[in-house]
Specification:
21% of the residues lie in helices and 25% in strands. It has 446 residues and is α+β, with helices and mostly antiparallel strands. The radius of gyration is 28 Å and the shape is globular. The N and C termini lie far apart (80 Å).
Length: 446
């Protein structure tokens, strides 16, 4: 009797943890069809998380046998995305009842990573069932692929800060809530059910504006919803104050023109302003900080960050995003400009990764590109400060005791009053303004 015929193995690929404790993503676009042959690490679906639109590659190669989730549908981490029929190695023979087979070591997904498991962490196992008949006779139907349902992958149960805040605001003890997410993860819906069971006050019910004929209702999803929640949290949680000053940017523009002579890469005005901010934060480290809260939401400590991760506001088709330049204090002005340019292009293309949109310690906002002079920036929570720059415009200005026309900009600085007082914030803003007016001062900081 010949060797046993082994059916193809069906692998289930689930939505991975895309980083930063994200618990789910919305399907934006399917990139494969059922029946299509795919290669290892080929992107199969484009999803929108709370931070970015990303393509998700599948670690299996084979034939797509099923897709899970319609466009616009939310998928939780650990829920299936696709199943793939993977052909076994040629000549492989398995007993009639195969023990659960351990999959090859999971390779990190391109651009992300795998959930941290450490020693002794569970691995995903897939049970395989083999056909007991010999090779089918000519003309007989091919065997149907059969696979036991795979066990859920190991998931780090990181409760979303939004879920924690919702529970805290309604007096819900998370320890008493049964989670319905992967590995018992407590989801927002679980907390909302607990609130309803406890007969939450009517004042906490959602507020819906009066409907009128012809109204357009645009759901807040993904990044837009996250931005709305983050700005609301910043406004309610941070005691922010704003100060501003007009600065003569004529000399800064002249220095930039000198730097951009020749064939070297051009240095943007944003790169020069970023360099000034890094120098100012070295002098006033209190502002490169955040506030630590306890479980009741009370401020318990100030955390001064050792590195400057410089965020900058960028407009994209998906709305306002804040890409982050890592370790800006270690970059030259030219390197800083190159990284700003790369991240700006990625923002416009919608290809920023979650890692490039998180972890900032200070934000720079050049709203002058919209043709406005001033603003009162809302701090990018949980940071402690944001500097805003208005348009640079020719204005009458007293220079060296004479009235003349100079290129003037307004600098607006919003800061968390918990981390410093007006003296520190005023000193920071004045230093920035002095560097804008006399760029040679930067040489002392380099």
């Amino acid at each position: 009797m010949g060797g046993l015929t082994v059916n193809p193995i069906v692998r289930e690929f689930t939505l991975p943890d895309l980083g930063e404790g994200l618990t789910g993503a919305e399907v934006v676009r399917w990139m494969v069809e059922v029946g299509e042959v795919i290669a290892v690490d080929q992107p199969v679906v484009e999803v929108e998380t709370a931070k970015a639109v990303v393509e998700v590659p599948c670690p299996y190669g084979g034939v797509v046998t099923a897709r899970f989730g319609e466009v616009g549908e939310e998928r939780a981490v650990g829920q299936p995305l696709v199943t793939v029929a993977v052909a076994p190695e040629p000549g492989t023979e398995v007993p009639q009842v195969a023990a659960p087979a351990e999959t090859p070591a999971e390779r990190p997904l391109v651009g992300y990573g795998v959930a941290e498991g450490g020693k002794g962490a569970r691995r995903r196992r897939v049970g395989v069932v083999a056909a007991t008949a010999a090779a089918p006779a000519p003309g007989a139907p091919a065997p149907v692929p059969v696979a036991a349902a795979p066990a859920a992958p190991a998931v780090v149960a990181v409760i979303s800060p939004l879920v924690r805040r919702l529970a805290r605001e309604h007096g819900i003890e998370l320890a008493a809530v049964t989670g319905t997410g992967p590995d018992g993860l407590i989801m927002r819906a679980d907390v909302e059910r607990a609130i309803q069971a406890g007969q939450a006050p009517a004042a906490t019910a959602p507020v819906v504006a009066a409907a009128h004929a012809g109204d357009e209702v645009i759901p807040l999803r993904g990044l837009r919803r996250t931005v709305a929640e983050k700005l609301t949290r910043s406004h309610h949680e941070i005691p922010a104050a704003t100060c501003w000053v007009d600065a003569d940017a004529t000399e800064l523009l002249a220095v930039r023109a000198q730097m951009n002579q020749g064939d070297a890469p051009k240095v943007s005005l944003l790169a020069l302003l970023g360099r000034i901010c890094v120098a100012a934060l070295a002098r006033y480290p209190e502002l490169n900080a955040s506030v630590d809260l306890d479980e009741q939401g009370r401020a318990v400590a100030l955390r001064r960050h050792s590195a400057v991760h410089l965020g900058f506001a960028a407009q994209s088709d998906r709305g306002l995003v804040v890409p982050v330049v890592r370790d800006a204090q270690q970059l030259s002005t030219e390197q800083l400009g190159a990284e700003l340019g790369r991240l700006t292009a990625a923002a416009r293309a919608g290809s920023l990764t979650p890692a490039e949109l998180t972890g900032g310690t200070f934000t720079l906002n050049n709203y002058g590109v919209f043709g406005v002079d001033g603003s009162t920036p809302i701090i990018n929570h949980p940071e402690a400060a944001m500097l805003g720059i208005g348009r640079i415009v020719a204005k009458p200005w007293v220079h060296n005791g004479e009235l003349t026309v100079r290129h003037v900009t307004q600098l607006s600085f919003t800061f968390d009053h918990r981390v410093c007082d007006g003296g520190t914030s005023g000193g920071f803003l004045r230093f920035v303004a002095d560097c804008v007016e006399r760029p040679g001062m930067l040489l002392r900081q380099l």
